[in-house]
C-alpha cells in the first residue's frame, strides 16, 4: 500500500486532547450505575481529531469511490444507469422523508397514493395484475416471488412440488433464492447462444417442479424467442414461470413479461428505474403476479376503496410480511419520479437506446475482442476476451487496465459459459461521445496487449491499491485499525 498516496487513517491523525465536537452536559439526574457485566474493561478507543481534519480526511477518502456520477460504469447485467437528480429531490421532500412509518392511513393519504400509483404503473409495464413493493432488493424479490409460488401450490394441497429449474446461464441469485426458499435447484442447459434449450427442458418438467426461472433477454443479452412455447410446457406440467427482471431495461414499452406467459416477476428498481445502485442499499425489488395470485402477495398491501381512500390491508391467504411496513419508501418515490418524468414514450425510448448503444459498442470492438455469439443483442453483450490470446493478457488484465484510464471495469468471468467472459452494458444514458471514448480506450488496451503485455498484466498503475489478494481479503478481512497495525501495514 502506498501510504503517501492513499493518505493516513483517521487514527493516525489522532492527537491526545484534540477535540472536534462536544456533547452538552447532562440535563437529567443520573438514574443509577450500569451493571458490571455491561461495562468495558478498557475505554473505547476513538480517534481524537479536530473538525477540519475529519472533514478533509473523509472528503479525500470519498474521492476514491467510483460511481455513475463520476464516470462511465459499463457493468454488464447490472444496468448502472445515471440517477436523475429530480428523483432525489422528490424523495427528499420533508412531508415524505419525514413521515413516520406508523402514521395512520387517514393521515398518510398522499404517501399511500404514491405507493398505489407505482404499483399500478409497474403492473402495466410488466403486464401483471398486481404488484407489491415490500421487498428490499432484487434477491429479496426473488425469494418473495418463490414464496408466492410455493403458497400457490400449497393452497391447492400440492406439497410435492419442491424443485425449481434454473438455466445454467442464470444470475447467481436465482439458485440461491430457490435454495433459501427451501426448494431444490435443477439446472437446465443452454444453447450456444445462451438461450434455454427447449429439448433439454422438456424431460425435466414433471409434477415435482414448482417453477422455472428465466431472464429475458438472457445474461448474454439475447432475446429468448421461445418463451411462449416454454410457458405452455411449464403450465401443462402444473408449474409456474418466473421472470427475473434484472434485464427488463431494454424491454421497456416494447414487450411485457406477462404477455409472454410469465406468472410471477420481480423488478430491480435500481436497474430499470434509475434508483441508486450498490453500496449495500437501500434497494427495492417489487414483485408482480398474474391474475389469480394476488391474494398470496405479502402484507400489508395498499388498496383503493370505492370512496377513493387508500388503505393498508391484508389477505387471509397472504404469505405474511417480508419487510418492515411497506419496504424502502424513499427508493420507491425515486422510481415513481423517473416513470412519471419519462412517460410511456420516454420509457420506450430508453429501451430502444439501451439496445442501440449496446450494439454500437459491440460492433465497434469485435475487430479486437472475440465475439462468441453473432447477431443483434439487446442491452448487453459478452466477449470471450481478446481475439489474440498469444500474449497471455487475460480479461482480468483488461479490466484492471481500464481503471488506469478512468473507467469502471465491466463484469468479468460471468456468465460462466465462456472462459474469458467480458460482459458490457452501456445503458441508454451514455452519450455517443462517452461510448466513442470507451471504445477508443478498449482498442488502445488491445494494442498494448501486443506491444507491451507486461504493462497490461501489472495494471492498474494509478490507483491507491493495485491488485489486492481477493481471497485473503474475503477470508481474513482487516476491519479495524488494530488489525492493520498487527499486519504491520
Tell me, rounded to a whole number, the average pLDDT: 93
| Radius of gyration from the alpha-carbon trace, in angstroms | 26 Å
Low-confidence stretches: 1-6
What is the H level of CATH, i.e. the homologous superfamily of the largest domain?
Answer: Type I PLP-dependent aspartate aminotransferase-like (Major domain)
Count of discrete domains: 2
Share of residues in strands: 5-15%
What is the structural class? alpha/beta
**What is the CATH topology classification name of the largest domain?**
Aspartate Aminotransferase, domain 2
Largest beta sheet: what is the strand line-up? 1-7-6-5-4-2-3
Total number of β-strand segments? 12
Query: Largest sheet, if any?
Result: 7 strands, mixed
CATH class descriptor of the largest domain: Alpha Beta
Supply the key terms.
489 residues, alpha/beta, Aspartate Aminotransferase, domain 2, Aspartate Aminotransferase, domain 1, 2 domains, seven-stranded mixed β-sheet, 17 helices, globular, disordered N terminus
Topology:
Elements: H1 3-6, H2 51-62, H3 85-91, H4 94-97, H5 109-126, E1 130-132, H6 138-155, E2 163-167, H7 173-180, E3 184-188, H8 198-201, E4 209-215, H9 227-236, E5 240-245, H10 257-260, E6 264-267, H11 269-272, E7 287-289, E8 301-304, E9 310-313, H12 329-365, E10 381-384, H13 395-404, E11 411-412, E12 421-424, H14 432-451, H15 453-457, H16 470-475, H17 481-487
Amino acid at each position: 500500500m502506498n501510504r503517501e498516496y492513499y493518505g493516513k487513517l483517521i487514527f493516525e491523525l489522532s492527537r491526545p486532547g484534540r477535540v472536534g465536537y462536544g456533547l452538552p452536559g447532562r440535563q437529567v439526574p443520573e438514574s443509577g450505575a450500569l451493571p458490571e457485566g455491561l461495562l468495558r474493561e478498557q475505554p473505547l478507543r476513538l480517534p481524537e481529531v479536530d473538525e477540519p481534519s475529519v472533514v478533509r480526511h473523509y472528503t479525500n477518502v470519498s474521492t476514491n469511490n467510483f460511481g455513475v456520477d463520476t464516470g462511465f460504469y459499463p457493468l454488464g447485467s447490472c444496468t448502472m444507469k445515471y440517477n436523475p437528480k429530480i428523483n432525489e429531490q422528490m424523495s427528499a421532500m420533508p412531508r415524505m422523508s419525514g413521515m413516520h412509518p406508523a402514521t395512520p392511513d387517514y393521515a398518510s393519504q398522499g404517501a399511500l397514493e404514491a405507493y398505489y400509483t407505482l404499483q399500478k404503473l409497474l403492473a402495466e409495464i410488466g403486464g401483471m395484475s398486481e404488484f407489491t413493493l415490500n421487498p428490499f432488493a432484487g434477491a429479496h424479490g426473488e425469494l418473495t416471488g418463490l414464496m408466492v409460488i410455493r403458497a400457490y401450490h400449497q393452497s391447492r394441497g400440492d406439497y410435492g412440488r419442491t424443485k425449481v429449474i434454473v438455466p445454467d446461464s442464470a444470475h447467481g441469485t436465482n439458485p440461491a433464492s430457490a435454495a433459501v426458499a427451501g426448494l431444490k435447484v435443477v439446472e437446465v442447459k443452454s444453447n450456444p447462444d445462451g438461450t434455454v434449450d427447449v429439448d433439454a427442458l422438456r424431460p425435466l418438467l414433471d409434477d415435482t417442479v414448482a417453477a422455472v426461472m428465466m431472464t429475458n433477454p438472457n445474461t448474454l443479452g439475447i432475446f429468448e424467442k421461445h418463451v411462449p412455447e416454454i410457458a405452455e410446457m411449464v403450465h401443462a406440467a402444473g408449474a409456474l414461470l418466473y421472470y427475473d427482471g434484472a434485464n427488463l431495461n431494454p424491454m421497456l414499452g416494447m414487450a411485457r413479461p406477462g404477455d409472454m406467459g410469465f406468472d410471477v416477476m420481480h423488478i430491480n428498481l435500481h436497474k430499470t428505474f434509475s434508483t441508486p445502485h450498490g453500496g449495500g442499499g437501500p434497494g427495492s425489488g417489487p414483485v408482480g403476479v398474474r391474475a389469480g395470485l394476488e391474494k398470496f402477495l405479502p402484507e400489508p398491501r395498499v388498496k383503493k376503496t370505492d370512496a377513493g381512500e387508500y388503505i393498508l390491508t391484508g389477505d387471509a391467504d397472504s404469505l405474511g410480511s417480508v419487510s418492515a411496513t411497506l419496504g424502502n419508501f424513499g427508493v420507491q418515490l425515486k422510481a415513481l419520479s423517473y416513470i412519471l418524468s419519462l412517460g410511456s414514450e420516454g420509457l420506450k425510448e430508453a429501451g430502444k437506446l439501451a439496445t442501440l448503444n449496446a450494439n454500437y459498442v459491440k460492433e465497434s470492438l469485435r475487430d479486437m475482442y472475440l465475439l462468441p455469439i453473432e447477431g443483434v443483442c439487446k442491452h448487453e453483450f459478452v466477449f470471450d476476451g481478446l481475439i489474440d490470446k498469444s500474449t497471455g493478457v487475460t480479461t482480468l488484465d483488461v479490466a484492471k487496465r481500464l481503471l488506469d484510464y478512468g473507467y469502471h471495469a465491466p463484469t468479468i468471468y460471468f456468465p460462466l459459459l465462456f472462459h474469458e467472459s467480458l460482459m458490457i452494458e452501456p445503458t441508454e444514458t451514455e452519450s455517443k461521445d462517452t461510448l466513442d471514448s470507451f471504445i477508443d480506450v478498449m482498442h488502445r488496451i488491445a494494442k498494448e496487449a501486443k506491444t507491451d503485455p507486461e504493462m497490461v498484466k501489472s495494471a492498474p498503475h494509478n490507483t491507491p491499491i493495485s491488485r489486492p489478494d481477493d481471497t485473503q481479503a474475503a477470508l481474513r478481512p482487516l476491519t479495524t485499525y488494530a488489525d492493520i497495525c498487527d499486519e504491520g501495514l
